[in-house]
User: Fold this.
Amino acid sequence: MHILLIHQAFAALDEPGGTRHHEFARLLVARGHRVTVIASPVSYLTGSKASEGSGHEPGIRILRAPVYSAHHKSFVHRVFAFLSFMAASFLLGLRVRQVDLVWGTSPPIFQGVTAWLLARLKRVPFLFEVRDLWPQFAIAVGVLKSPLLIRLSLWLERFLYRRADRMMVNSPAYVEHVQGRGARRVELVPNGADPAMFDPADEGADFRGAHGLQERYVVLYAGAHGMSNDLGVALEAAARLEKTAPQVCLVFLGDGKEKPALQVRAAELGLGNVLFLPPVPKSEMAAALAAADACLAILKPIEEYKTTYPNKVFDYMAAGRPVVLAIDGVIREVVESAGCGLFAPPGEPAALAEAIRELAADPPAGRRMGLAGRRHLEEHFSREKIGEQLLRLLEGMAGT
Assistant:
């Protein structure tokens, strides 16, 4: 089976960003299938040029479609980047031969149009994956405001859902949403992680030594520094912790549009317990997480975000680190079922500081939580088990 994946923000294991699709591609190739990915030449996380050879290995072919590359500047610039990729990926996809299935993924939702058109022209099944509820999230956070654009976006969402031969979602809370907008057959293939990538026994001595963290209780945030991530609340929590738990250091690992403003704010607050680090490829994430005593996952206190299964939480669990969770909803259910962390209500710096203080006061309890999370991930959210679900879905669609 030859699968064509249209994914502007595709990241290989040697690049920063979410690598769900590269990991899945490797699993598919191991089962005898071929995967061609059409991706952007620009990293969505950093805005820098993607490495030319990233992701290429036997059975996996990465094609880079030219795009307008100023998507970090503003929402309007991002829309131009999305639209340019939609057109360029369509033209590139026309040249890909002997395809058995076209897989589109959202966000951005515009690349779903490319996947649908290519699937129809090639007369093969169209799988449409929803990784977050765009445009609902963009509307809720205030990024998408124009009534005309909102109406057009909602129309496009329904158009694609109704025309997909099969829908795939990565969170159980998305199923009802997509069904309510016309999706016919919906499959849950949740986010997860590969436990083989992480060693819970590793204490990250090299990483801690390189960044002067030897004697600190390290709380690591790894991921995007964007509007949705609410890292300003984490800085306010750090200000509280500086006096009451001076051994704690909050480490922000990653990049994004809001990072410069966050660095300015940390300087204004005079925070000596905060460290900003550049993003690292997924292949180096194990070393970073090993250096953490606890890991932070946080989003704005918006009702829509209660539906998410953030990738980072599963990486934290795979690394055997306790989770400080400032996200309510279905991911809270996972963390509490696993007994692998502490919940702080989103948007509340004092509560977040208290959760971190509690973990820092009893490191052995945190280690027990982390190992409980690792066991829960191995049983329910390992990439290999989830990959089996995906394999059955794709093979069923392509009739192989």
